[in-house]
Amino acid sequence: KFCRSLRKNVFCTFLFCYSSAFLPDFLSSMLSDFEVLPLASLQTHSVRGRDVQTQTHVERHLSFTALQRHFRLYLRTNTELFTEDFRNFFNSHVIGEENSRVQAHIDDNNFSAHILTDKAEYNIEPLWRFTAAPPDGRLLVYRSEDISRLAWPKVCGYVKTDYNDLLPESVRSSLVREKRQVHDHKKNTCPLLLVADHRFFQEIGRSEKSTTLNYQIELIDCVDDIYRTTC
């Protein structure tokens, strides 16, 4: 999972360097399958909660069709990573698909999402992230597995190896004792400082503070999800 997410982020940064004039051909050379959707094709409506807890959340149903399938997302504001008054970032699941996870960002004229199901990993991003043209409301939808030219060598599978086998016997024994003790969740929390240089601010953030911050928050949200689901 970590390799797929890392590959996706490298792909996005690399793709942005190409001008919009070469975008269609370049997308075809980088992605074996993708689809461009107008933002207006997304259907969304708010869900009103009846209990006290849901009054502090924003809940939405969002649906769209892309890549030969129909998506129905249930979105709920992410209060695990953000305060209750921060309501542009969502997480939840695909309706009717067990074990699915969704991370989404909804702003005035922007939408991005990372959708993980048992069958595939889908990414939705504003098309303007990959061009020098101004935002026009279009979205790029693609699967992580369809990023064709950034295939990782098989050595990347090393992350699946049991790292305990590489440790001395004395260290392995202490780890076994720690696992038997009561788990302290605070030990799985670490500070993270993310800094954007001027090129990132100018190209990825389009020289806008809000756009740069939102993109960085999306990255932090992605890292947090990886950390929570693999540790």
Notable characteristics:
231 residues, alpha+beta, 9-stranded antiparallel sheet, 28% helix, 25% strand, disordered N terminus
Give a description of the structure.
InterPro entries: ADAM_Metalloproteinase (IPR051489), MetalloPept_cat_dom_sf (IPR024079). It comes from Hucho hucho (huchen). One of its GO terms (cellular component) is plasma membrane. The chain is an alpha+beta fold and 231 residues long. It has a domain at 2-154. Helix content is 28%, strand content 25%. The chain has five helices and nine strands. It has helices at 2-16, 23-30, 169-180, 198-204, 209-230; strands spanning 34-38, 43-47, 59-66, 69-77, 89-94, 101-106, 111-116, 121-126, 138-143. Strands 1-9-8-7-6-5-4-3-2 form a nine-stranded antiparallel sheet, covered by helices on one side. Strand 3 and strand 4 form a beta hairpin. The radius of gyration is 20 Å and the shape is globular. The protein starts with a helix and ends with a helix.
Task: Describe what is shown at a glance.
This is Peptidase M12B propeptide domain-containing protein. This protein is α+β, with helices and mostly antiparallel strands.
